[in-house]
TrEMBL record:
<dbReference type="InterPro" id="IPR000276">
    <property type="entry name" value="GPCR_Rhodpsn"/>
</dbReference>
<keyword id="KW-0675">Receptor</keyword>
<feature type="transmembrane region" description="Helical">
    <location>
        <begin position="270"/>
        <end position="288"/>
    </location>
</feature>
<keyword id="KW-0716">Sensory transduction</keyword>
<keyword id="KW-0297">G-protein coupled receptor</keyword>
<keyword id="KW-1003">Cell membrane</keyword>
<keyword id="KW-0472">Membrane</keyword>
<dbReference type="InterPro" id="IPR017452">
    <property type="entry name" value="GPCR_Rhodpsn_7TM"/>
</dbReference>
<feature type="transmembrane region" description="Helical">
    <location>
        <begin position="295"/>
        <end position="312"/>
    </location>
</feature>
<protein>
    <recommendedName>
        <fullName>Olfactory receptor</fullName>
    </recommendedName>
</protein>
<comment type="similarity">
    <text>Belongs to the G-protein coupled receptor 1 family.</text>
</comment>
<dbReference type="Pfam" id="PF13853">
    <property type="entry name" value="7tm_4"/>
</dbReference>
<dbReference type="InterPro" id="IPR050516">
    <property type="entry name" value="Olfactory_GPCR"/>
</dbReference>
<keyword id="KW-1133">Transmembrane helix</keyword>
<feature type="transmembrane region" description="Helical">
    <location>
        <begin position="235"/>
        <end position="258"/>
    </location>
</feature>
<keyword id="KW-0807">Transducer</keyword>
<dbReference type="GO" id="GO:0004984">
    <property type="term" value="F:olfactory receptor activity"/>
</dbReference>
């Protein structure tokens, strides 16, 4: 059996052996990345600049945008570079870093979505106690706990995976380093530490999902009792997008990590990770910006201010 130290790198899977299709894949992923990049940077910037948006809900949304930006930047740029360079190689430590960061940002996002559901529960079901409960200090601690917990899972997963021996094929059936495809190419038949790590992650994920479901059941019960239609519409507009993103994120991650290793490659194995690493970072800014009146107003104000400054500078130059 080969020793782990002899492993110098892996080969990530390309989407096609045809050069034209590789270019199309690179362009497609580049467009997705630019949409996610601009959307998340825009939300992060708007919330940072507008003092009216310095509330707990927008504080967590700002953290979510930064997490999404980091998550999609961990996997997509490398895939684009591989497609254009016709090289699928990734170094051993590059693969370790990619897996660690992917798990860190994904787990942190799940914890942050759980915190955001608690924030909405307090805001809608206990509005009189909202300012007392959701203080600035409490929000910072909850966000920090989400990041630290994600880092713990990242270290746990990456350590469990890369202590396994890889003595066979070095070709990873995925466009980034993830636990299931790496497990498939390991020549170890026993991986107790990894099984415990994955089981622990699934238990925590199920707990977060149950907690969010209970929180939203209380939220929807309270919303349906609201006398005004506008109040119900505003509450649903902030909660439903959160639920949609969460369902896509958790469901696809659970399926990818729970399905038994397959000997043959399947299209499902390739597509599933896109729904928890690419789709949420791309859709989050679109959903939250299109459904949020405050963000629209702030964006229009900054845009008009930019136009005025631009024309003022042009007048000075002329």
């Amino acid at each position: 059996m080969a020793n782990l130290t002899v492993v110098t790198g892996f080969l990530l899977m390309g989407f096609s052996n045809i050069w034209e299709l590789q270019v199309l894949h690179a362009i497609f992923f580049l467009l997705i990345y630019l949409v996610a990049l601009m959307g998340n940077i825009l939300i992060f910037t708007l919330i940072s600049l507008d003092g009216k948006l310095h509330t707990p809900m927008y504080f967590f949304l700002k953290n979510l945008s930064f997490l999404d930006l980091c998550l999609i930047s961990t996997t997509v740029p490398k895939s684009i570079a591989n497609s254009l360079s016709r090289s699928c190689y990734i170094s051993f430590w590059g693969c370790v870093s990619q897996l660690f960061l992917m798990v860190l940002f994904s787990a942190s996002e799940l914890f942050l979505l759980t915190v955001m559901s608690y924030d909405r529960y307090v805001a809608i079901c206990q509005p009189l106690h909202y300012e007392l409960i959701m203080t600035r200090g409490a929000c910072v601690k909850m966000a920090a706990a989400s990041w630290l917990s994600g880092g713990l899972f990242g270290a746990l997963y990456s350590t469990s995976v890369f202590t396994l021996p890889f003595c066979g094929s070095k070709e990873v059936h995925q466009f980034f380093c993830d636990v299931p495809p790496l497990l498939r190419i390991s020549c170890s038949e026993t991986h107790f530490a990894l099984d415990v790590s994955v089981a622990f992650g699934i238990v925590i994920g199920v707990f977060c999902s149950i907690y969010i479901t209970i929180s939203y059941s209380h939220i929807f019960s309270t919303v349906l009792k609201m006398p005004t239609r506008d109040g119900r519409s505003k509450a649903f507009s902030t909660c439903l997008p959160h639920l949609i993103v969460l369902m896509v994120f958790t469901t696809t991650a659970f399926i990818a990590y729970l399905q038994p290793p397959q000997e043959s490659d399947s299209l499902l194995d390739l597509l599933l990770p896109m729904f928890y690493t690419v789709v949420p970072p791309t859709m989050n800014p679109i959903i939250y910006s299109l459904r949020n009146k405050d963000l629209k107003i702030t964006f229009m104000f900054i845009y008009i201010l930019y136009i005025l400054i631009y024309h003022f500078n042009m007048c000075l130059l002329t």
